[in-house]
Amino acid sequence: MARPTTLRGSKLLIKIGDRASPEVFVAPCALKTKQFNRSASMNEFNIGDCDDPDAPIWTERVKSALTASLSGSGTLAKESLDLYEEAFADQDSRNVQVTIDYAVGPRTYVGRYHLATLNITGEEDGLIQVEMEWQSDGPVELAA
Q1: At the top level of its lineage, which domain of life is listed (predicted)?
Q2: Beta bridge partners of 120
Q3: Which of 96, 103, 114, 140 is deepest in the core (most CB within 10 A)?
């Protein structure tokens, strides 16, 4: 059996567009966990057997909608706070890139996202922490 090629978690990058022209994408500093989730909504139909109406019915599914979300958490870096605050206050979605960076070249997914959740917490004897969740606004595609 061949040994798989694995990737470190630091190779998953969430980069947020700054809306400038030309647009610059910045990966927020100090995020320790990052997630890129894609899911599909399904419509279900129960189709009976014409030859055996008493047989159990199999459910058929039709993929009807796609969505993506991003989340991240870690220590709040002062350098990223303005970016989070601006994105959360903005009613328009932002261009976001999700990059899986590996040796033969990165794989980058592009799309527009809304910053839907921004949690900032701190304990008396610790560092301030941040959690964020982004929801897609339209298609998310693999960049050419």
Answers
A1: Bacteria
A2: 130
A3: 96
